[in-house]
């Protein structure tokens, strides 16, 4: 969605959004409107005992229709509780709530007057930038497969169009400049959500690769390897997963060179892209299998992140690599007990074909470190059900061989409320994936520590490069509507990693 910016003014037939504090005292331009209305606004606030007494956690609101002596046709007044203590995520949530309310009432031609809404922890410009981010993220919807003509004869049906949104502020020039970043994040998140939400008959490995290739329009260099090229390279681990599918497996490499020194080591992000996961010969139960279209969530995040970095012209050299396969049943499908050879030369005994994501990442990780010598690698994957048992849907699992990298990711996650919880890596866990006939097996010999042993498997394909693995199986999809995310794909990781790059590596 697009947001327009202008200086403080009213516009006829527009709806205004203003703010007051927890004591119902008007903030910013709301004071000016109150003066113009000859205290009509503040009088309504003072006389509404219910509104004065309500004490919601974040905000409450009151509506004034046809306020006296001002051009605006309607006012929404949001009462903010302790907004001076708001952090970045609080402003995003506020923006999401405002959008949801305006959308519920199908309001159009909306002007936001944010002056005065500032935290002691975040500058005014950054506060309102984050509010706009929340507003934009909450506007996401996926309805391309719905019959748009179903209600064309219903003349009483209100428009479902998103509101035309303006920000009117004394700092409108700076806010408009910052909107470039808002739009970059929003578009990156939207791309990720679209990729994950599309049905698996549409979003096949070649189609995901096409979406990655579209980033060339933003200055990203994209290289797509097919099965012929990967076979020649010896990527037997990745290729083993897609052998049962009619759709060709792909490896997409995205390069963004935004640092002034184009030869500076890149930062690298690697994503698991299993477009649909039947479990292969180790077939999953039917209940819940329809959710396995989001098993490419890690690759979706990497593609969306690369779009965000490119759109905002991030001052960093970045590599995005996604391994794209479909894990299906077929006459050529990998069998339990097969032994395969990875790109690294290490052999793997496949004991369970439903532990396939680690096979994809094994080759992608090794290829990335060998070809690009990155400063660090972060991989994302909906890797294990065990992480959902451990953390539910609140945190993603974090595994890392580097304390500094781990701390930076955790801190970025706290800012964006995309929370990470670090798990241990240890040689005793590593022993659990030793195979009697190959260099390793793709699952452990016991039932415990499923997420940890999966991470230990990945670590065998990482040499001494700083590396982190994010298991996002529990956070990629939500079954409830959140303030800045409707039900479905969350794009968990795009904002986190964008913040992480910006805070610690951009321009350095």
CATH superfamily heading of the largest domain: Zn peptidases
Average of per-residue pLDDT values: 95
Quickly give the CATH architecture of the largest domain: 3-Layer(aba) Sandwich
Q: Total domains, how many?
A: 2
Q: How many strands appear in the DSSP assignment? A: 20
| Poorly predicted parts | none
Tell the overall outline: elongated
Classify the beta-strand content into a percent band: 15-25%
* Biggest sheet character: 8 strands, mixed
Strand order of the largest sheet: 8-9-11-10-14-18-15-16
The SS-based structural class is alpha/beta
Q: Which range best describes the helical content: under 10%, 10-25%, 25-40%, 40-55%, 55-70% or over 70%?
A: 25-40%
State the end-to-end distance.
Answer: 32 Å
Radius of gyration: 25 Å
What is the CATH topology assignment of the largest domain?
Answer: Aminopeptidase
Kindly provide the name of the CATH class of the largest domain.
Answer: Alpha Beta
The count of helical stretches stands at 16
Topology:
Layout: E1 3-6, E2 15-20, E3 26-27, H1 29-36, H2 40-47, H3 49-53, E4 59-65, E5 74-80, H4 88-104, E6 110-112, H5 124-138, E7 165-168, H6 172-197, H7 205-213, E8 221-225, H8 227-233, H9 236-241, E9 250-257, E10 267-277, H10 297-311, E11 317-327, E12 338-341, E13 347-350, H11 357-372, E14 376-381, H12 385-391, E15 396-400, H13 403-416, E16 420-422, H14 427-430, E17 440-441, H15 450-459, E18 467-471, E19 477-478, E20 488-489, H16 494-504
Parallel strand pairs: 1-7, 2-5, 2-6, 6-7, 10-11, 10-14, 13-17, 14-18, 15-16
Antiparallel strand pairs: 2-3, 4-5, 8-9, 9-11, 12-13, 15-18, 19-20
Helix pairs in contact: 4-5, 5-6, 6-10, 10-16, 11-15, 13-16
């Amino acid at each position: 969605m697009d947001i327009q910016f202008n200086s403080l003014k009213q516009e006829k037939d527009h709806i205004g959004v203003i703010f007051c504090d927890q004591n119902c005292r008007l903030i910013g331009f709301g004071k000016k409107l109150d003066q113009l209305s000859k205290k009509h606004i503040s009088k309504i606030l003072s006389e509404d005992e219910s509104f004065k007494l309500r004490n919601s956690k974040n905000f409450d609101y009151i509506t004034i229709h046809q306020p006296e002596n001002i051009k605006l046709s309607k006012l929404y007044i949001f009462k903010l509780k302790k907004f001076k203590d708001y952090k970045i995520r609080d402003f995003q949530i506020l923006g999401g709530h405002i959008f949801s309310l305006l959308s519920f009432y199908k309001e159009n031609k909306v002007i936001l007057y944010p002056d005065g809404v500032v935290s002691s922890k975040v500058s005014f410009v950054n506060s309102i930038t984050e509010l706009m981010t929340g507003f934009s993220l909450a506007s996401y919807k996926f309805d391309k497969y719905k019959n748009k003509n179903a209600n064309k004869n219903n003349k009483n049906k209100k428009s479902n169009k998103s509101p035309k949104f303006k920000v009117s502020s004394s700092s409108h020039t700076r806010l408009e400049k910052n909107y470039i970043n808002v739009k970059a994040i929003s578009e990156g998140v939207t791309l990720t959500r679209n990729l994950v939400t599309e049905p698996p008959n549409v979003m096949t490995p070649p189609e995901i690769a096409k979406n990655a290739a579209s980033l060339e329009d933003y200055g990203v260099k994209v290289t797509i390897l097919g099965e012929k090229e990967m076979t020649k390279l010896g990527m037997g681990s990745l290729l083993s997963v897609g052998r049962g599918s009619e759709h060709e497996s792909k490896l997409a490499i995205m390069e963004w060179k935004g640092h002034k020194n184009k030869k500076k080591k890149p930062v690298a992000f690697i994503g698991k892209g299993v477009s649909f996961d039947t479990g292969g010969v180790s077939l999953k139960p039917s209940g819940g299998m329809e959710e396995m279209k989001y098993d490419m969530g890690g690759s979706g995040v990497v593609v969306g992140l690369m779009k965000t970095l490119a759109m905002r012209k991030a001052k960093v050299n970045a590599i995005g690599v996604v391994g794209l396969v479909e894990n299906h049943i077929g006459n050529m499908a990998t069998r339990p007990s097969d032994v395969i050879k990875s790109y690294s030369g290490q052999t793997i005994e496949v004991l369970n074909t439903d532990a396939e994501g680690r096979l994809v990442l094994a080759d992608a990780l090794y290829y990335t470190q060998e070809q690009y010598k990155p400063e660090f690698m972060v991989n994302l994957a909906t890797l294990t059900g065990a992480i959902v048992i451990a953390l539910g849907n609140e945190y993603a699992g974090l595994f890392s061989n580097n304390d500094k990298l781990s701390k930076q990711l955790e801190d970025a996650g706290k800012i964006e409320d995309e929370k990470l919880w670090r798990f241990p890596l240890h040689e005793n866990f590593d022993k659990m994936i030793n195979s009697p006939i190959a260099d390793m097996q793709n699952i452990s010999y016991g039932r415990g520590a499923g997420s940890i042993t999966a991470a230990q498997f990945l670590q065998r394909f990482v040499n001494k490069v700083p590396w982190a693995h994010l298991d996002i199986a529990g956070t990629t999809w939500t079954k409830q509507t959140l303030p800045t995310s409707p039900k479905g794909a969350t794009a968990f990781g795009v904002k986190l990693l964008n913040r992480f790059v910006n805070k610690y590596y951009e321009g350095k």
